[in-house]
Design goal:
Number of helices: 38
Distance between the termini: 45 Å
Largest sheet: 9 strands, antiparallel
Strand content: 5-15%
Helix content: 40-55%
Shape: globular
Number of strands: 17
Mean pLDDT: 91
Structural class: alpha+beta
Length: 876
């Protein structure tokens, strides 16, 4: 169907009844969707909806007799003023009048606007005189911007011309003031998004690099040059023809994304939320298995906003010079090739990068070597962009570039601003092919908050900060290690390659290790250093997995881990890489609990390596030492020795092996003071140790105690991260839980006493717990995680079965798992609880009714019951 056949202009105003208007809008919406799916030019579709809306509003204006007022004008402002309307975009209107409308005119205006609302149009409107517009615009840059791009739809031209005249730069927001205000507005908007475009759920319009950044360029150009379109900026010399086409290409993709989003959700929202991404990716034609369409779409989005941000930065800097005259006068020579303009580095010869590609690396080495440099001068940035596009191969193929790159990696400030700018301006992608493949590489999950390249950049920045004095307080062990490393560049290279093979299929650690080894040898590192870097890449997840999912108080676990690490140098490198990696994955992943686990694993492994792997620890000596230190603490607290001995005689040797002297003394003191043996003792450490609140429960053992505690903690919105489940020789539970608030902080304040009281009451009731089966969150509903139950071989010393559970993170999961253990009569000895975005990867140490490892038949039955329990709500 021809779009012209849908035009409201074909109807007389009297025919524009409410049902007829709804029919017109529905037919237009259907036509737009059909043409969008057919691949029509997005600009044509956006303009077509605007034009049809002009015609409908003109007819309705006449239908309400508003055309009879000779001084009244209907004006489009905002995006509608630019003639751009997406399927559900706001229709911003200014009803412009001379003087104050009388009651009759107000009624007609009110009827007109009410009809627009009845049509379910997203209308924003104001009724103002020219003088009122100017007064409001003087105070608010957003209103001023709307007035500057206002467009007459229908009504009195003279009234609209008066507004146009009143908003000329010589009377209203001169271009200098307008530019500064818009730049400040953009900076404030970027801060609201933490100055990053790389969010899992970005805002297409307002995120850095989004449509607003393109509009900011247009607004400033329009104000200063009178350029109504981006193409007119080319004639003013502020955009090259190639830059114009690049900006247009970026705008068109973002428009398609926004158009598809509006079509998918049927309302004006620009947030690309998880539950919308699949539908939008499908509408845009991205294909593939599983989450591939979403990841392809988001990769294109991240690459697009990066290009927009780069052009926006360059053009605003050029505007700064043209409009404000801020051309740095304090020019200082740095080298025969580079000079300093204020605090920006500038190239002297405009053909330097094209003539000599290695000069690109020399530019960034100068940034590393001169801490007074804060950025790159606009013309130099333009030349850098041009040279980057003209490269016929990767820079790493040139020996002179390889030498300069290693100079950068070894420089104390090489991973500071220099690295950030190389990442921002695409130089890392131009340097070696592996990086170019991960630019914008997104992983559709709730764990990785950034694309792979941005995550790696943040990891390198963390390592860089570990050497700064501030790290003494935030990451003291990392500070100590990184400041004494003899070859810190090896850690930088391992960080650079740790995720380089993501998105290629296969094991990214193995593939990345191969790439790292080849890269190091290509860059003339000796074989031992190259192998160390490759080992770190291959095993970069080893320490976090061991700390968070294995029992690090088991000597076998420490011995196995130490055997893989082999020496203290590798341990130092691996610890620093692990902490930096966790902190760079998302903004909420790191907490004191994870920090404590990693430190304890580090020092236990260091001790094992110094003792020698051929000399395993004598467990009896460790138990006696823990008892000796705990006894000293208790004696210091005036606890009679005569009471300690009979109490400890009730505890198993395993209890003393798996608790610290401080924990043993704390437990003992409260048990000895607890005289109601039938009533549970519940205590929470007032001074959180090990990074979390330590919850201790002492009570007669009873069925499904773990499940009941888990249900009670779930009701209090607390997360279990670790559990040691033990029973005394005379049948009393000695259970320790590490619990944290949802934000990763320990429990504090009034919550402490309330939690103790609630748990005491729960444990008095032997009935099975009431598990809250709540629907998953909006984000979780978009993910499918297949429930997996795997079993590891029994641990040599403890003779227990280790069960690994992978499942979708749902409310009440631990309580449900605990109930399964109870129904099968299994004994739970320890639990490691790890939540990775939308999925859990939990480990449970179990024995059967006879306190033996589970046999094959028992494992099969347990697997069936766990899968049945977790999949009963239809989510797998």
């Amino acid at each position: 169907m021809d779009a012209s056949l849908l035009a409201p202009a074909l109807l007389s105003p009297t025919e524009l009844t409410l049902p007829k208007c709804k029919e017109i809008l529905a037919r237009l919406q259907d036509w737009l969707e059909q043409r969008f799916n057919a691949g029509d030019d997005i600009m044509e579709l956006v303009v077509t909806r605007s034009q049809h809306m002009d015609q409908l509003l003109t007819g309705l204006w006449q239908r309400h007799g508003l055309d009879k007022d000779p001084q009244l004008a209907l004006v489009a402002v905002g995006g509608y003023g630019r003639g751009e309307l997406h399927p559900y975009s706001d229709i911003d209107l200014l009803i412009l009048c001379n003087g104050t409308p009388d009651a009759a005119l107000n009624d007609r205006i009110g009827s007109f606007v009410t009809l627009l609302w009845d049509l379910h149009l997203e209308v924003g409107h104001s009724v103002r005189s020219v003088a009122e517009c100017i007064r409001q615009g003087d105070k608010d840059i957003t209103i001023a911007t709307n007035l500057i791009e206002a467009r007459l739809i229908t009504g009195c031209y003279d009234t609209f011309a008066a507004l146009t005249q009143a908003t000329q730069p010589d009377k209203f927001w001169p271009s200098q003031a307008f530019f500064e205000a818009k730049r400040t507005e953009q900076e404030e908007r970027h801060r609201q998004f933490q100055d990053t475009s790389y969010k899992l759920e970005p805002d297409i319009k307002s995120s850095p690099g989004g449509l607003r950044d393109i509009q900011t360029i247009s607004w400033v150009a329009r104000r200063h040059f009178g350029a109504a379109t981006l193409s007119e900026m080319v004639s003013h010399g502020f955009l090259s023809r190639a830059e114009y086409h690049e900006l247009l290409d970026c705008q068109n993709f973002l428009w398609k994304l926004r158009f598809a989003l509006h079509m998918a959700i049927h309302r004006p929202d620009n947030r690309l939320l998880f539950d919308r991404q699949r539908a939008v990716a499908t509408a845009l034609g991205f294909a593939g298995e599983g989450n591939e369409p979403i990841e392809q779409m988001m990769k294109r989005f991240y690459q697009t906003v990066r290009r927009v941000a780069e052009l926006n930065e360059m053009l605003l800097q050029l505007f700064d010079e043209a409009i404000l005259g801020h051309i740095a006068m304090d020019v200082k020579m740095l080298t025969p090739e580079f000079r300093l303009r204020g605090r920006l580095i500038d190239v002297i010869n405009p053909e330097l990068f094209r003539a000599e590609p290695a000069a690109i690396l020399r530019l960034f080495y100068q940034i590393a070597a001169n801490p007074q440099i804060t950025g790159i001068y606009s013309t130099t940035l333009r030349q850098l962009r041009d040279a980057r596009r003209r490269l016929t191969g990767f820079l790493c193929e040139r020996p002179d570039c390889r030498r300069l790159f290693m100079m950068l990696v070894r420089h104390p400030r090489g991973c500071g601003l220099a690295l950030t700018l190389m990442h921002r301006y695409g130089i890392l992608a131009a340097y070696f092919p592996q990086w170019s493949k991960i630019v914008g590489q997104m992983q559709f999950d709730m764990f990785h908050a950034y694309p792979v390249d941005e995550h790696t950049h943040r990891l390198l920045k963390n390592i860089y900060r570990f050497r700064k004095p501030a790290a003494k307080h935030s990451h003291p062990l990392c500070f100590e290690i990184c400041t004494r490393l003899r070859k810190p560049e090896l850690l930088n290279l391992a960080a650079l390659f740790h995720d380089i093979a993501k998105g290629r299929g296969g094991d990214h650690s193995e593939l990345g290790a191969e790439d790292a080894l080849a890269f190091c040898l290509q860059h003339d590192l000796d074989k031992s250093d190259a192998r160390l870097v490759a080992w770190l890449v291959r095993h970069h997840l080893l320490m976090s997995v061991t700390a968070q999912r294995r029992d690090i108080y088991d000597p076998d676990v420490i011995g196995e881990f130490a055997g893989l690490v082999r020496d203290e140098l590798r341990l130092d490198f691996l610890y620093s890489l692990t902490v930096a990696d966790i902190c760079a994955t998302n903004d909420h992943l790191w907490n004191d609990w994870k920090g404590t686990l990693l430190r304890e694993l580090y020092f236990a492994t260091q001790k094992a390596l110094r003792r020698g792997l051929e000399n395993p620890p004598d467990l009896r000596l460790r138990i006696r030492e823990n008892q000796r230190q705990a006894r000293q603490i208790l004696e210091h607290l005036d606890t009679p020795v005569a009471q300690i001995k009979p109490l400890w005689a009730r505890f198993t040797a395993d209890y003393f092996l798996r608790h610290t002297p401080d924990q043993i003394a704390w437990h003992s003191r409260h048990i000895l003071a607890h005289h109601d043996s039938w009533r549970p003792l519940v205590q929470i450490s007032q001074q959180p140790g090990r990074g979390g609140s330590e919850l201790f429960i002492y009570s007669p053992d009873s069925p499904n105690l773990f499940g009941r505690v888990a249900a009670a903690l779930d009701q209090k919105n607390l997360n279990i991260h670790d559990a040691q489940i033990m029973t005394s020789k005379d049948g009393y539970a000695l259970d320790t839980f590490i619990v944290l608030e949802p934000d990763g902080q320990p429990v504090s304040g009034d919550r402490l006493s309330d939690l103790c009281h609630s748990l005491s009451e729960v444990l008095l009731i032997p009935a099975p717990p009431t598990v809250r089966i709540r629907p998953p969150s909006r984000r979780h509903r978009e993910f499918t995680v297949t429930t997996q139950v795997n079993f590891l071989q029994p641990q040599r010393l403890t003779k227990r079965t280790l069960m690994e559970l992978v499942a979708l993170d749902t409310p009440g999961l631990l309580a449900r798992i605990g109930s399964v253990f109870s129904r099968l009569g299994l004994n739970l000895h320890a639990a490691k609880i790890t939540t990775i975005g939308e999925r859990v990867e939990d480990f449970f140490s179990l024995t059967n009714k006879e306190d033996r490892p589970l046999n094959e038949q028992e494992q099969v039955l347990l697997r069936e019951k766990v899968v049945e329990e977790l999949n009963q709500d239809g989510k797998i």
